[in-house]
Specification:
Shape: flat
Number of helices: 27
Number of strands: 42
Largest sheet: 8 strands, mixed
Radius of gyration: 33 Å
Structural class: alpha/beta
Length: 993
Amino acid sequence: MQPSPEQSPHHAYPDHWEADVVLRDGGTARIRPITTDDAERLVSFYEQVSDESKYYRFFAPYPRLSAKDVHRFTHHDYVDRVGLAVTVGGEFIATVRYDRIDATGRPASAPADEAEVAFLVQDAHQGRGVASTLLEHIAAVARERGIRRFAAEVLPANTKMIKVFRDAGYTQQRSFEDGSVHLTLDLEPTAESLAVQRAREQRAEAKSVQRLLAPGSVAVIGVGRTPGGVGRTVLRNLLGAGFTGRVHAVNSALDAGQDTIDGVPAHRSLGEIGDPVDLAVVAVPADRVPEAVADCGEHGVQGLVVLSAGYAEWGAEGRERQRELVRQARSYGMRIIGPNAFGIINNSEAVRLNASLAPDRPASGRIGLFTQSGAIGIALLSGLYRRGAGLSTFISAGNRADISGNDFLQYWYEDPDTDVALLYLESLGNPRKFTRLARRTAAVKPVVVVKGARHSGSTPPGHAVPVSRIPDSTVSALMRQAGVIRVDTVTEMVDAGLLLADQPLPAGGRVAILGNSESLGLLTYDACLAEGLRPRPPIDLTTSATPHDFRDALSAALADGACDAVIVTAIPWVGENGEAESGDGEVLATALHAAAAAGPAKPVAVVHVEIGGLAEALSAATSTVAQQRPAAQPLVAAREATGAVAPGAVTASPSATAGTPAAPPPSAAAADAAPTPAAVDGTPQASQAPESHGVAQDAPRTGRIPAYPAAERAVRALAEAVRYAQWRRQAAVPGKVPDFLDDTIDTQGAAARIDALLGADPDPRGVPLGHDEARELLACYGIAVRPTLPAPGPEEAVAAAARLGYPVALKTTAPHLRHRADLGGVRLDLDSEAALRRAYGDLTELLGKPAELRPVVQAMAPRGVDTVVRATIDPAAGAVLSFGLAGAPSELLGDTAHRLVPATDRDAAELIRSIRAAPVLFGWRGAAPVDTAALEELLLRVSRLVDDHPEVVSVALEPVVVAPQGLSVLGASVRLSPPPARNDLGPRRLSNY
């Protein structure tokens, strides 16, 4: 809302303070500055506040606002006097105001840095977390305006307000004066205040998802009067799934007297429904959606699933229609899945919701599945069904204009029915937040991601995302750092998901291989080596092996303490007549169940060729409840067959029999078609974790053992589980930033230099620093750059060498020759004036005039390995720290490792060890190992610099010569820019529309 013309012209309306927020109960509200046009809204709001709340606000009976009060509370300068309002449906439900004061408590202006703050929340909305959310936003506004402290007077009986201040996590002081509690809050964010803010964000966003997934009543808007159509399909699917709540059909064009459709009460509008409606599924043409949304908002609907197409995927007009849809829904406190969505499914027996276009509700299980594509969603449902897998929840979000994968990570984090989160993502609207949420969720349950649209310019229509400048390989490395299992195809996602959902994590990568096929055993052995596992030589049971032999061999392997996993290869038995006998699959499955149930649970893979009945027997589940398993390891089953039905799963019970899932598969392309594998860097990274998914654990046991049609797929899934388990073990003890850095870092000195270099009116495109400026800034963080002196002529070169001391290096700094020793632009070990003059003459004769070459002289550094350290601020991913060997390894081969900033000591250690050329640093071919401790310290210092000062948008140290003792930074470039916008910091807010 823009201010009227009489608003103070000295301070423009701060529209960046406007924000949509999710409240504690999952509903949404809008926070915005109060303007002079809000007088009537303020009066109406105040009339609905109880006398008790008014008394708490003004410390006296205050039944109504005077005209003077209304003027005061609606006229602000947005600097010394600021008021914010929380609105739902355009009406106020809460207000907050601060007034800058001096040391005596009187009105003041800057440089006074204290303000008095007061809140008022409508009684009907108390308990929804409104005041705590308002405190976050008004504190951010105050900090922006140079206010560092809030003072508040609260009556002792106003315990709710005292609790809001107390629980905020800010440093505070309390005293009792003149019958009231005097509170002073330091507004500088603390680790506690940030933790409080993020915990509240998680609870609120999880609740907003829960309201959609577990409604007590559903209305389908747009149900056709005749069979067919999207609305009628959803209605049929809701009824077919056995939804436990109430169902209503809505069609504004119903014939007179028609009061039911398919046995469901039918209405022309939501207003005709006497009972509350929690969820509305909107299946009307796009031009009629606003009318439906308004009807929902006016009748208290909590959330929408918008199946209608015709939005951002249709171009500029559709994008504006989508923005308006989100704004309209949020104005009523509703959240949206969609538009252009496929729908949602919740398999909880207490809900049994299928508000989607999928004709059948999939089997119940422990996997949560989120997809941005309806087509991919159909394929995944079909593939999971055929493999005997079950889902806890399924969401196909379409254009994900509002609710996204981030929201479902918030929900799944504490969802007791979900053990594994699978996400097919085509874009990341808030990558920093995704990484943060994925790291936290991965610490307690696996997160498996397929990222579609990975290449520049391929963002799907309808998705508003920040533009990233980093390659997909870097995104993959950063996901791995956060504990995310990043795979390349939906088939690999399902392969890994089944293993992780049905089995505990492996204790290591030692794999036993046994079976009746020597060839399949060798293929499995090779696949294990390729994935970095440690396979033992295959055990050949020969083709005459019986199911009893398989059981004995598997039992022995499981009991072997030197084995972490077992892969079984199986081909059909050959009968006496020479024909394959493929009908004993159930017998073999029972034998494997018996061995698995009797011994420690370790991964078992069955790679088999069309053994009749085995796939069905492997897909049976005996239980979906949690139970104790000793020394638990994943049990994998795999088979290989051309055109074979996709893998099933094994029941870990000796009494199990073949089973068939109750529901038929959705009609779709198979998700288990032959994959196109690609190697993904699986180096585990450190992360914080509240608990460790260790070897012995309480895990949900479905009795299934995932099965695969090829050894490569089973081994790849097992390898992902091994890497993830290693990440979890490391995450249990998080890394840290060494304390010794604090004594050698001048944060304030660096800030002062940055302010001076940027100036009062900085260029938004950024400012590259000169050599000396960069050296001085880096020195504030204990990073010493060897000086270089310009040498525009041979005499200047000689003078520079005399200052620096021989031996020296003569280098060109022309952009086309920089760091290109192979082109002759660098001459080293010049130990005399004669050698320097000779090199200078050769250089200019070979490559050009001094003015073109820009030669410099630098003192020689101790010999070592040339490396490069970089840090950049990416608009999408945030601050990224990178490391590689200088020259061809990083530039030509892309052998560079990446970590998110701030980096810990563990991140720094892993960073230098995760490049393929890392052996060069550790004494390859008899060379002396270099000082990796000094290199790790340098990485931590660069990380601290860009983390402490967001104006530092780029740092490149090249080359960094790492010697056996110490290192030398020979070149450095730094770029400054006004701090980029951060949507992952500050008060909670939803994406803007």
